[in-house]
Amino acid sequence: MQNMGIGFVGLGQMGRGMARNLGRDNGPFYVFDQMPEALDGFASTGAVIAESLASIAQNCRLLFLCLPSEKEVNEVLFAPDGIVASAIAGNNADLTIIDTSTIDRDEAVRIHHMLADKGITYADCPISGLPFRAEDGTLTLMFGGAPAVFESVRPQLETMGTFIVHCGDVGSGQLMKAVNNIIYDINIVALCEILPLAVSGGLSVDALHQVVTTASARSFAGDHFVPRMLDRHFTDDFAMKNAYKDILNVQKLAVEKKAMTPLMNAMTSSYQNAIAQGLGDEPKSAILKVYERALGTKFSRDQ
Fold first, then answer.
1. Greatest Cα pair distance in the chain
2. What is the C-alpha end-to-end distance of the chain, expressed in Å?
């Protein structure tokens, strides 16, 4: 009998909301996370709390991953008691894996080929959006894989995102996310570099806040981070050290195409400098501190 379950592995900040939305109209629905506390609240939703990866691999036809890095993706898939070995042991030849983790583009392609050799379908589909968009089901999803696979899982993707883009073959989802995030990262570094300079030049932080979030410089980066900078809120956001996945993906492409990327290079230098100063575990907005220290000023409501 063909397995009919849908599974979700990785119930972190983003995965939790995604899984809740995916599980509402899809059953039987299995969830798994190695951290027991991440499973809190899922039993009341009707989801099956899987005791192991093997349980998911042997009961699901469709599996979504949302994991921190390629290290965890490889462990979940290829460990002796992981998804691949368990699916093969359970004769689950129809398994499709949609990986919403952000990983190296070349690694996504490698995983695709390894799984294809075992009869398992794999596509990358990284996500963009904050945890509240994961909860609301309004994420942007960037799918890399065969058109037929994309169409087959579109109904499930639509439970988690409002903007769903088929970017091309496997790996193209990772590249698309990297391109988006590089532009975003450049924008963040521009804010971090210029706002302390503006304060040093005599402009008030209140006036700066009003102008850069309403005038032609307005951006999502400014709307999200400028109020947090003013409140010195440098927690509960994506750690800047993890931005390197995106930087490396685009750097590889730039080297391959022999492209000129001066803005990306300057942005990368700012990230490296901030991480070297011990700010790697803080959000990207903490790059502000590097430029504040250099000028002896602060972009803060409490100056």
1. 72
2. 67
177 is catalytic: yes
Pair (188, 105) in one structural domain: no
Q: Indicate the pTM of the whole model.
A: 0.92
Distance CA 198, CA 205 (A): 9
Q: Is residue 28, in this structure, part of any structural domain at all?
A: yes
In a shared domain, residues 101 and 35: yes
Choice among 71, 177, 241, 284 that is catalytic: 177
* 106 and 68 within one domain: yes
Number of domains in the chain: 2
pLDDT tens digit at each of 303 positions of the chain: 355 799 999 999 999 999 999 998 777 999 999 998 899 888 788 899 999 999 999 999 999 999 999 999 999 999 999 999 999 988 887 899 999 999 999 999 999 999 999 999 999 999 999 899 999 999 999 999 999 999 999 999 999 999 999 999 999 999 999 999 999 999 999 999 999 999 999 999 999 999 999 999 999 999 999 999 999 999 988 889 888 888 888 999 999 999 999 999 999 999 999 999 999 999 999 999 999 999 999 999 986
Query: Are 127 and 244 in a shared domain?
Result: no
**Of 147, 169, 191, which one is at a domain's C-terminal end?**
169
Residues sharing a CB contact under 8 Å with residue 173, sequence separation 6 or more, in sequence order: 108, 123, 124, 125, 126, 142, 143, 144, 145, 167
Cis peptide, bond prior to residue 28, ω within 30 of zero: yes
Range of the domain at 101: 5-169
Single residue among 169, 201, 218 that ends a domain in this structure? 169
